[in-house]
Amino acid sequence: MNRRLLVLGAALAAVVVFAAGGYLYTQSNKPSAPTATVVSDTTGLERFHSPVMGDMNAPVTIVEFLDPSCEACRAFYPIVKQIMDRDPGKVRLVIRYTPFHDGSDEAVRILEAARKQNLFQPVLEALFAGQPSWAADGSPNLQQAWGIAATAGLDLTKARQDATGDDVTAVLVQDKADVERFKVSKTPTFFVNGRELVEFGPQQLADAVTAAIAEAEAQ
Asked: C or N: which end of the chain has fewer Cβ atoms within 10 Å?
């Protein structure tokens, strides 16, 4: 479900490559055209409730269908951040919840409660950092996930109340419906300005973003 074998290995290797010196960005300024599928109707690819990182007016939007329990999502997170940091103000990230794993629904509720306290990104990063301990496949430890969120500054008393709200349930329902609509079957799945990344990988994502920036600047 999360490409745990080949994809995870490639993504983890890519993190090392990025940390060692930004390999992706030493390549030609004219990347090969990425293989992508243009979505004919992008209505619903983003929702008003979707968490956004980066400049709201950025010309390029990465939509990531993400599961907080997904190892590949964890591995790709620093890669996506570096892609955004490479072109400040030009790329924003929209996150769509894709709770495929056991316990991921509650992890999403933790993130939504954190958003109400303006702590979405710190809590997401804390959950990713602690993922190996709380998101064991088949036996997630959600109490530990809550404890990890608290280390990021989350007020647990308020968060536990907010997490059960009808508005959070509505977010989960809508995102699950959009996962079905866009036929998302694996995490992470990326769309760049409405084009689904078909050839999955760090270089392919970087190339797709570079091409989208060039296209936007040419208009």
From this structure: C
